[in-house]
Prior knowledge:
The protein is α+β, with helices and mostly antiparallel strands. Helices cover 36% and strands 21% of the residues. Strands 1, 2, 5, 8 and 9 form a 5-stranded mixed beta sheet that branches. It has a 5-stranded mixed beta sheet with strand order 14-13-12-15-16. It has a 4-stranded antiparallel beta sheet with strand order 4-3-6-7, with no helix packed on it.
Amino acid sequence: MKVMRILSVVALGAVALLTSCSKSSMQFQGKGFSTTEEMVYLFDAEHPSSQPVDSTKIVDGAFLFKNEKIKTGLYFITIKGMDRYLVDFADTNCEIVYDEATKGITVKGSQFDELFNSYYALRAENRKVVQECETEAQKFPRNEEEMTEEQKAEYEIIIKRYYAANDSFVNGMKGLVFKNPTAPVSFIFLSSVLDDLEENEQQKAKEMLSNYKGEEFASVKRCRDFFEVQEATAAGKPFRDFEVLDLEGQRSRLSNVAGKGKVVLVDFWASWCGYCKRAFPELKELYKEFAPKGFEIYGYSIDKDKSKWKAQIETDALPWLQFVTDEAIEPKGENLYGVRGIPFTVLIDKDGSILGTNLSMDELRAKLAEKLQ
């Protein structure tokens, strides 16, 4: 088994904040930075674009944004070699103070000071543990086969601590979101933990969206889209059709296979996805056992490099149908099914109704045994 290098999964990349603004002009001050002469860029967080809204420079550890064209709302500030900070341009005089020792931010003067400062404290705690785990993990061999039994036990402790820290971070984020259901920034936080919501938390999130009366900015739309896709792909709903390219480069549709009397598993994968490839041996066993009874696998690669896609099919000797996404084809299957990570699977019944998404191997086997007796 390959030893996975530990990487930080802090949800928003890195975040901090805030602002100063008057009725006639907008001002935002940051201070306490040790970096000097670096450019600071401002990006609209509510309407994302590759082009910055404004820029300035750090001078003597401080910077100032003052531009009459800047509106109130959420922004990202980026500084070379440092974090990307989420900031809120409010209607009062506000500032952020950077702490070099903790790499954290303190906010003063904002309507949502408590929310943001709670977030920064939560993030700092998570980062401390994650960085310690990353440092410790570097001391071990890259492959588990090269470890002694004692090293394996020590490494397992580090892994558990790492995941526990990130679980704590995600749960803390959810707590902040539901404690502040009307704050616009809560929807940015919510969009980063959608896949981690329990059933009761999903209901709370839906209520937040239903009660939200503000502007439909990007994160709000992302949350709405998530639940719309979730509902459209729930068990019992008809499968959502899409086009892809086959191995000969010809367009093909899922409906050519699904809803035609076979139970079909749509397997979203890519040649660069280690987890996807590690699932192939078990999928082969399922295919060998159930294909004669009416089971088909519909391989859907999201590879951009089609040569690597084809090469991987040959390397792993995949015996089932294979297709690949293409930039020229819309809508894409991965969007129709809300694929936010791979491997991702959709099991479709003989009549074209969805049986489930992302089922475990044991659940897949049980469903196939039930449907293909």
